[in-house]
Prior knowledge:
40% of the residues lie in helices and 21% in strands. By secondary structure, the chain is of the alpha+beta class. β3 and β4 (247-264) form a beta hairpin. α1 (3-32) packs antiparallel against α4 (112-140), α3 (97-106) packs parallel to α8 (206-221) and α6 (175-193) packs antiparallel against α7 (197-203). The longest helix is centred in the N-terminal third of the chain and has 30 residues, at 3-32. The protein is globular, with a radius of gyration of 22 Å. 31% of the residues are buried. Mean pLDDT is 74; it is low at 19-41, 72-89, 96-104, 106-117 and 140-162.
Amino acid sequence: xxxxxxxxxxxxxxxxxxxxxxxxxxxxxxxxxxxxxxxxxxxxxxxxxxxxxxxxxxxxxxxxxxxxxxxxxxxxxxxxxxxxxxxxxxxxxxxxxxxxxxxxxxxxxxxxxxxxxxxxxxxxxxxxxxxxxxxxxxxxxxxxxxxxxxxxxxxxxxxxxxxxxxxxxxxxxxxxxxxxxxxxxxxxxxxxxxxxxxxxxxxxxxxxxxxxxxxxxxxxxxxxxxxxxxxxxxxxxxxxxxxxxxxxxxxxxxxxxxxxxxxxxxxxxxxxxxxxxxxxxxxxxxxxxxxxxxxxxxxxxxxxxxxx
Length: 308
């Protein structure tokens, strides 16, 4: 059998794999292409909580985050500022900067084309990853070990006891901080209803801005707008707070009521098909866990939202 014939099965496997990845990448977009995406991202949990991003805190686990999973980081038990994680997990004010820029400065002006372009980029990235995996398992892979051999760092990190992973130092926050969290919650709800990215940029991290911008772009491409009004905070309490170097984190449980409607863009008020979902006369209750971050002595910013 010729070398070319022997390579044909592998080429077909690559094509089938890429086709599968294409279907897999497009499936979430089709599933999420619906009216009614709220400011909570359509019922998902997203954002970053520093070294505690993937800890079980009683809320829904993160489904979208730019923080690496614990198995891919090096667990450290050193002092402040010596914690593991990726560059972005150690710098939440920079994480998502590219995504926030593209979402707010580019995709917001492209409507459905921006969302489609983002999906194509996702497919391309997944395809490249599959290509590297196939090369790795076909005997033409890449060596990650040093000249002296040994265990890759990620494997050593995964084998280390979870208790050694640095998770910051527990601290306490006061009533003034809780008041600041409530103000941010109100500002986010109001800015979301007005699709005001400039206002959202002032009260959240760049990573969170990229997620909100994506949701707003999706709504615009579908010709709808999610209006949240008459927001009333019913309960707010701090569940945990900690420090990681010069960063301070705090997580709060928030329960509120609001009039949540999805309206069709371009329809005059009172038109029978203006309201896609929701009742302008009935408020509904929601509860979520919000995490905030700030530089020591700086202003708090929203860094994660988790469903309860």
